[in-house]
Every structure is written in structure tokens, then in C-alpha cells.
């Protein structure tokens, strides 16, 4: 895959997650795509990927603007410093007050037909859970 | 240092970790290499690397089962699967009884003048917690 095309595709998907533009996100996925969120969590098809991120944004804002992509052939890796804001209380979890933290996460991608085909995300639960004890960010996004 | 060199060195480093060959595993860690790793925060240089090894050897037996690298310019990224055997209880986590978990691990590296200037490890503790 052309490296520039790969970077543009990643930028489109990351911006779509950031802005909650689910149609744009869905358009980046191959019809037979699959995304692994952990060893035991697999979602299949661009519609399921859309639902996966839509679900998270019910309780959190996901600022995906700080990332670095490494592209090699039809594969890429993305290191993202996710700006995570907890804006709406999730059942069974602490009260949401706009708490904010940075969560590093990794994404490994295989492309097919210039689209996302196989995606694996790696994230530390410890890093994510820190958001509940964090302070609100003054500029926290609320969507 | 070419991308091919980095791919080869990355393979050597992961193999060396599995053989507890710390001399080769740490050969490309300099005094100022920044090492970021979830449970331990940010450490620096060989001293930091030694602390990470000591922490993991105290609590786990570990071995990389597979790995695949992506390299572009001076940046490298590796998606690995590690088999962790939980041997000694970590405060705040369930009791260690030898539970075994196969855990995705991401490693990002930045290279300059033949050495790593930065390493970030991201370990999927979702998978670890599911197993323990």
C-alpha cells in the first residue's frame, strides 16, 4: 500500500473516532475487516467497529489527535496518546466529573484494498482506570 | 542504520529476552534511553532496564511466543504475544497461584546513532486480568 495513502486512511479513521463521525469511520473498513481489542475480544465488519467506538463515546470523549504512525508495506503500527475524558457516568463506575487522563495505546493494522483489514489494539487497563481518580481538564471536551 | 538493520536487531533482542541473555537484550539501551512501561512508569537507561527485569522476574515467568515488527525510518513497532506465569502476588491484584496468561504486548522504539533513545511498552492487562 502506498505509504501516503496509508497515512491518510489512518488520519481519516482517527479523526472520525475523535469527532464521532461514524459514517467516515465505517468507510475506512474493508467489508471483511476484523478488529481485536484484546486476546478474547474480536469485532467483525466495519459496522461492528463503528458500534464498538460509539459505545465508548457514550461515557468518554476520545481525543485521538496525538499519534504517530509507522508504515511498512501493507502493515502499519500507530502509537496514540489518547486524551480520555470521562463525561457521563457509566453504571457501576464512579461519578463522571469530566475527569481527564492520557492513555497510551497501540494499534497494529494490516491493509487490504486500501482499507483497514485486520486491526489489533493493545491498551493497558491500568492506564484506562486512572481516569476515574483523575482531575477534570479545564479544556475537557464534552460531547 | 537501515530499516533492515533495525528489523534484525529487534529479532535479536526478543530472542535474547527469551534466553535471559541480558547482554544482547540490552546492548542497544544507552544511558539516556527513556523506557516507558505501564506498571513502572518512566525509567531511564540500563539501570531502568535492570529494574524492569527485576520486577518482572520477581512476579512472573515470562516468554515471548511470537512477534512481528513494523519499521519505518528510525521508528520501530512490535506486536508480540507474551506468556506470563503469575508467580508472586502483586499488591492490589489477585493472589498468584501460577496462573498463565497469553498477553498482547506492544513495543515502540526510536533509534538514533545505532541506539534506542526511547522504548514504550504497552501490555494488555485486560487479558492478564481475565486470566487471573
What report would you give on this structure?
The complex is a heterodimer of chains A (143) and B (132). Chain A has 143 residues and is α+β, with helices and mostly antiparallel strands. Chain A has four helices and seven strands. In chain A, strands 1, 2, 3, 4, 5, 6 and 7 form a seven-stranded mixed β-sheet that branches. The model of chain A has no long low-confidence stretch (mean pLDDT 92). The termini of chain B are far apart. The model of chain B has no long low-confidence stretch (mean pLDDT 93). The chains are: A alpha+beta (143), B alpha+beta (132). At the A-B interface, strand 4, strand 5, strand 6, strand 7 and helix 4 of A face strand 3, strand 4, strand 5, strand 6 and helix 4 of B.
Break the fold down into its secondary structure elements and pairings.
The complex is a heterodimer of chains A (143) and B (132).
Chain A: H1 3-19, H2 22-26, E1 29-38, E2 41-44, H3 46-57, E3 60-63, E4 67-72, E5 75-86, E6 99-112, E7 115-123, H4 125-129
Parallel strand pairs in A: 1-7
Antiparallel strand pairs in A: 1-2, 3-5, 4-5, 5-6, 6-7
Chain B: H1 3-18, H2 22-25, E1 29-37, E2 41-44, H3 45-59, E3 60-72, E4 75-86, E5 100-112, E6 115-123, H4 125-131
Parallel strand pairs in B: 1-6
Antiparallel strand pairs in B: 1-2, 3-4, 4-5, 5-6
